Predict the 3D structure of the following.
Amino acid sequence: MLTLIHHTDPGHGWLQVPAVILRELNTIDKVSGYSYYCERTDTFFLEEDEDVSLIIEPLRAAGEDIFIEELYQDPSFVRSLPRWQPKEETA
């Protein structure tokens, strides 16, 4: 079973995901600039409305059991992290 933390505050939420999972699923290049990234721990905090689907759906399709732990803070420390900078597509 994979346990992930869903960080929330009064305005939004993010799912804490080790970057290795996104690399294994080949979805790291699809993460938007609305998510945050901690380079020190190589961890993403995926924006809950769009980016979370990059891992939840593929993991469930692969038969992975996922447990989501809720963590509420006001404000969440996630907002102090740098936003993810997606690579720009080349023409």
The mean pLDDT is 94.
